[in-house]
Fold each of these.
Amino acid sequence: MQKKFWLYLPLLALVTLASCKKEDDPEPDENELITTVELTLTGNGTSKVYTWKDVDGEGGNAPVIDSIVLAKDQTYTYALRFLDESKSPVENVTEEIKERDYEHLVVMTPSPVGSMTVTITDKDRNNRPVGLVGEIKTQATAVKGKLKVQLRHQPGVKDGSPIPGDDDANVDFDVEIK
């Protein structure tokens, strides 16, 4: 009988190891719900907040979007806030973005190309751009165009470029430079 026990010991060990519960992978880092983007521009003696707002989310009512009017050949400082107004009280997602700045990048793309130059001035803990604050310099001629604001969610893959990750927010403002 003892001989048979030793024959079954490896099988018992294999079953025991196989039945051990493996530690579950942590929950994936989910995208933020952003219903409102506020772009504050300060320069040329003024400060103004421009808003993109879609409180009911995709598929409902169209977003309400302010048009941006800027002066030619001027430099403005900008600051962005991202909000979730579907919650009560309103959640300022910007705070979480600041806490996890190493996972986020704001990409601002003007069109037509060359109508504005955007310079990011804030950095994450790895010395990579974040984009919540910076400067916008307008060109010297009048033009109408757009300013795309993207909040890129890049957990584990942020390398300072806009390519990895996906969008938490992707909004377009109409811009007139006059």
Note: The domain at 29-177 is CATH 2.70.50 (Coagulation Factor XIII; Chain A, domain 1).
Amino acid sequence: MLENLKQQFTELYGQQNKNAFFAPGRVNLIGEHIDYNGGLVMPCAITMGTYLLTAPNKDGVFRFKSTNFEETLEIAVQDSYEKTGKEWYNYPLGVIHHFLAQGKSVGGLDLLYHGNLPIGSSLSSSASIEVVTAFAMNEIYHSGFSKLDLVKLSKKVENEFIGVNSGIMDQFAVAFGEKNKALKLNCDTLDYEAVECNLGDHFLAIINTNKPRKLTESKYNERVGECQTALKALQAELDIQNLCDIHTDTFEKHQSLIADATVLKRAKHVVEENDRVLEAAEALDQNRLADFGRLMFASHDSLQHLYEVSGIELDTIVEFCKGFDGVTGARMTGAGFGGCAIALVKKASFDDFSKKITDYYTSKIGYAPSVYSSEIGTGVVEL
């Protein structure tokens, strides 16, 4: 892979690359739609991601090229940049803009990207591009940012330059991921703990519905608003700043404060899902994969029935997984409304699983899913 990319770089730019970097994609193992409620999430890095090869040039320009997209950009080094259109190169351009905004010096650079993450699949291809670019710029220009600084800068790119109002989990997992470990991350404080996640004789299967998820077209903002309504109702009797400041038992004692039945369902999911993350961390740490799998199924059921962010495609995948002997647990991952599901699948059963779920899904939905096997990988690195 890397040798082939190096050859392509030389052919495209007429010089050899000087540096090479990799940032993974991520999945969230459990803890969905609670990041904006001050809760705990448990993402991990995966072994698919984004490669970036670079070399300085003497022309005073940035050249952006990708093996995945036809669009290219050549733009002079200047004091600031603005987003233009919806092309992929806005993500690295935004990173450079925010480096400049913080007074960092940069110079002409040739960049070649290659990603093996499906676009629009909830595996954080955008965060992967942002973090690999930020990490590369930091190394090449000796900018002195810490890894957490780079995470915050990348989130700022997503929010302010690209214009997507997402949380920090994606960039955090892409940067801080550790091999065979999940990150129990407090989205409110950014405190985290690396939890042992040895999958043993299991693969982490990623099943792409091939129904692209577009946050701007989803009901994401509606869910955020419903959670804020629930929080305000509970604050009449409880001194809390976030829904995830309470556990299930406290919620049950005060749930009558929430008059709207739909808002009540949303809040119930958030509080119970946060408790599931705590249980899941303990199960993984004690190598109780069967218990972890049970929590994955419970998480999906809650997202399907209480939070209502799933859909027939994701539900079809999880329905199949519940009846397949080689699966220990499965759930949708990411914001929902399409994208991907994940499953813990025994390695010995994976080929059979891949064929049978493809047939089952195709018969129900009318087109095939994409099925990948992954292990839990490391965060951003220089190669």
Note: The mean pLDDT is 93.
Amino acid sequence: MNLKIEIDRKSGVPIYIQLKEGIKRLIETGYWEAGQKIPTERELAEMLNISRNTVSMAYKELEGEGILVSTQGRGTFITDSDAVLRQEGRKERLLRIIDVALEEAAEMGFSLDEFVAIAHVRAREKKEMLARMKIAFVECNREQLDYFSREMHLGMGITILPILLEDFRRQPAKINQVLENVDLVVSTFFHLQEVKQLVADKKKTVLGIALNPEIETIVRIARYPQGSKLAIVCLSETFAAKIRAALKQAGLNHLQLLTSISHDEAELTALLQDVDAVIVSPNRKKEIQTLAPRLDVIEMRFLPDPETINVIKSALLELKDK
């Protein structure tokens, strides 16, 4: 099999990211189709002359995005639903759903005008329903909490209540009292089981989501050559550790990393004079740009994908329907 995946070992971009994007292109162009079985990790590694661990990392991320699915004893396949969505487009799929609803409404004796009026009222009811709903987001670091609460665009007036995991551990009774007025609890998969245990009301839905670093940011960092010195400046050691873990997972082990959570201007200035670039949490970007205007300041953000946002909205609607 002659795969049209190009791996450039001199580009500075992690090989697993190149492989991941290459696989997406094969699917988008129809080279690999919905439901098709693809090479095993070992087979693909041999075809491209790369390590099996690299292939495994790319496959796992694509599985997390719903593009691939692995079945024990059968292999890895292109996910039918995602492939169809990519081919048809979200708008086309929605139009198809509406067409089916129109046909069923006509069979029930409703006119087109009646269908439009009922659909309009129903959509308004759902919108008003969501506007009254509250989500609690539980995370281990202040940086991610603040960013999620400020930048998570769920729309329709949904309220997001940030809860620091450490506060929940120290004051479970107080936090559970707050959660009584919350419709849905959201946390990352990493903390999901602990949060479920801490939530006193076992009937309350606790939803796990994935937050991943932006690929563009990883690529930008990867372009720094062997031995480059980069500073990590955050509010907490927890978030700094999260950044280090993300870089390690991306295979970026060629950099010297220095960490600081200090707010002392003199201390930070001394640190920034001795590095090639600085990686910052979102809430410290402006501060560091002011201290070192000529330094490359790279903002590290961990974001949910669009599908995750849709999952949250669907969960809220299901809760209200119940």
Note: The chain has four domains: 15-86, 90-129, 133-211+305-321, 213-302.
Amino acid sequence: MFSAIARVFASPDLRMKILFTLGIITIYRIGAFIPAPGVDYNGVQQCLALGQAEGGLYNFVNMFSGGAMLQVSVFALGVMPYITAAIIVQLLRVVIPRFEALQREGAQGQAKLTQYTRYLTLALATLNATVLVTMARSGALLGCNPGDIIPDDSIFLVMLMILTLVTGVAMIMWLGEQITERGVGNGMSILIFVAIAAGFPGSMRDIWTVQGWRVFTIVCIVGLIVVAAVVFVEQSQRRVPVQYAKKQVGRRTVGGTSTYIPIKVNMAGVIPVIFASSILMLPSVLGQFNQPAPGEEAPQWMIWINTYFDGAHPVYMAVFFLMTIGFTYFYVTITFNPNEVAENMRKFGGFIPGIRAGKPTESYLSYVISRITFPGSLYLGLIALIPLIAFVLIGADQNFPFGGTSILIMVGVGLTTVKQINAQMEQHNYEGLLR
């Protein structure tokens, strides 16, 4: 391992890219602890010490901000507005023909879609910042009294806080783009990885402190098994062979090559888990905004939500599992178009051995996709349930490190980044990161 690291830093170009990436990560982490204007830092720490911050949605968003949201820092919104905007723009390709046309235009069209994503990110950041500041003013964010977090709630200061939080999101987008252009890996993915990994030591420390070393050891062993399983599945793919016919161009014969279409077992990535968890959090959010007055009895629908939509209830787990499977099929359907793939193959003279070009190829690809998506959806559903099962067994929360969105993102980004470093090393030394 140390020899591999030494080979990485032996290349001056790669060394500068890695150091630049680490510098951007340092700036990002520092911003997660700088309080927003008007926020009483001591009051925030006292509220956090009471441990009254709501779970569910708060823990989910706080995980993607690297703990910055509950600190009410300048980077409190983290990367969630960008993630949401990117997902919305990708889904709109199915609804808006203009977006689909831009997707097919290559680099120029992708740049236009990226610009739309930035605009939508800022719009969502403004909405999220308004909600966050409102909840911080009322004390609902951390379960404390009004005025404990924001002592001075004048209109000017509130507007300044909202502007600061939105600017923080814009700053995060810029930092991510700098990593993509001048560093190693995809910038926003690296920042998401860092935000999630930042809470990893704290989660493990809490398990050690509360549950003891036996449970800690079991969690580590199970975690290693889960990581190994995730790496195995993420690297698994179904290779559909493709043969290109020979063509006579002048005196030369071109074509006749063999290749394949790589179809991953988990084509949807972490998106279905985010979809399912976000939708299942909506009833809890509605319940929080419809709390009964002191002395009044809660309505029946709120009692039903609090009973069955608790993360530890089997009904919630079953619905979460089934929704993850459903969203996996939905997302794969809108991102992989068998008709488009078959048409492109026909244009370039490609065919699948034993399958005729055109409609039969489209039907065959649809058949393969539907079959390969089934085990992939079951895999995502099981991984998503790990934090909920850990909550029942050891009292963990949504920040449990070995499961759900956290482990999928960390392993996926880690594998992609290692591949990019390996590719750059092979360009310089003809020898990869791993021999």
Note: Confidence is low (pLDDT under 50) at residues 52-56.
